[in-house]
């Protein structure tokens, strides 16, 4: 039986001579795998809609193991992401992280909308690192792993000085509680405040301020270890690439 979904292509792998296996994040059915037969033939009508980053309407039917693509139509290609290597690298990381965090066939409209909004902003704006750090914090929270930052995760007292970030406890520790996790990392109050701001504030407001690059770098390191622990994935190819660009 044919059915229609809207989704964004997170990943595409060449398969056989002319086919591709697509990982599509659909609005209606969450993340799915679909085989797009003949899509690498030069005259295929599905070439554009099955590119990575394409937001498309797909008509699918369920096969034995995978969904099969019948027809597709591009809604938005996000083509301008390819204008600039830095922009493309950050956007690729956003997709790689989304793919790593999602469980197949689990719908999450909030994350679907967050992803599209993030890509829309990366297309238009230049504060890629700032938006990417905000995406990491929002995305991991929408998946159910929100780090506890508003006060001490252990005793709930206000955080002032000598704060630590604990991966095991998923949040910030005050000076008195820091000994409960000897692997916790130092976190200054300014970095903590920026993390809260990025987590709880809409993108429009985040874009209005310029965050110090060193603070963003610190947050990036904290988030990478936090994401790695919660998603059980330590290596992000696109993130290694961003680091190799030295930006
Ligand atoms: Zn405490």
UniProtKB/TrEMBL annotation:
Entry's Gene Ontology cellular component terms: bacterial nucleoid
Pfam families: RecO_C, RecO_N
DNA replication/recombination mediator RecO N-terminal domain location: 1-78
Entry function: Involved in DNA repair and RecF pathway recombination.
Descriptive protein name: DNA repair protein RecO
Keywords (A to Z) from UniProt: DNA damage, DNA recombination, DNA repair
NCBIfam families linked: reco
Organism lineage string: Bacteria, Bacillati, Bacillota, Clostridia, Eubacteriales
Family: Belongs to the RecO family.
Superkingdom in the source lineage: Bacteria
GO BP annotation list: DNA recombination; double-strand break repair
Organism: Senegalia massiliensis
Entry-linked InterPro entries: ARFGAP/RecO, DNA_rep/recomb_RecO_N, NA-bd_OB-fold, RecO, RecO_C
Keyword DNA repair: yes
Record keyword Metal-binding present: no
Alphabetized SUPFAM superfamilies for the sequence: ArfGap/RecO-like zinc finger (SSF57863), Nucleic acid-binding proteins (SSF50249)
């Amino acid at each position: 039986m044919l059915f229609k979904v809207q989704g964004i292509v997170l990943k595409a792998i060449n398969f056989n001579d002319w086919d591709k296996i697509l990982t599509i994040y659909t609005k209606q059915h969450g993340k799915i795998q679909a085989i797009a037969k003949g899509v690498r033939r030069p005259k295929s009508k599905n070439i554009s809609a099955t590119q990575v980053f394409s937001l498309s309407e797909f008509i699918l039917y369920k096969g034995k193991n995978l969904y099969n693509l019948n027809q597709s139509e591009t809604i938005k290609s996000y083509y301008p992401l390819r204008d600039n290597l830095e922009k493309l690298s950050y956007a690729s990381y956003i997709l790689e992280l989304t793919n790593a965090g999602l469980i197949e066939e689990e719908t999450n409209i909030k994350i679907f909308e967050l992803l599209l909004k993030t890509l829309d902003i990366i297309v238009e704006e230049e504060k890629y690192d700032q938006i990417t750090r905000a995406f990491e914090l929002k995305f991991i929270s929408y998946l159910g792993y929100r780090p506890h930052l508003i006060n001490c995760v252990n005793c709930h007292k206000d955080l002032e000085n000598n704060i630590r970030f604990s991966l095991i406890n998923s949040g910030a520790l005050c000076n008195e509680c820091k000994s409960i996790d000897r692997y916790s990392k130092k976190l200054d109050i300014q970095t903590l405040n920026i993390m809260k701001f990025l987590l709880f504030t809409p993108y429009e407001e985040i874009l209005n301020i310029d965050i110090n690059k060193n603070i963003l770098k610190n947050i990036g390191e904290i988030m990478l270890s936090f994401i790695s622990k919660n998603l059980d994935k330590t290596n992000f190819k696109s993130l290694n690439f961003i680091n190799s660009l030295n930006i």
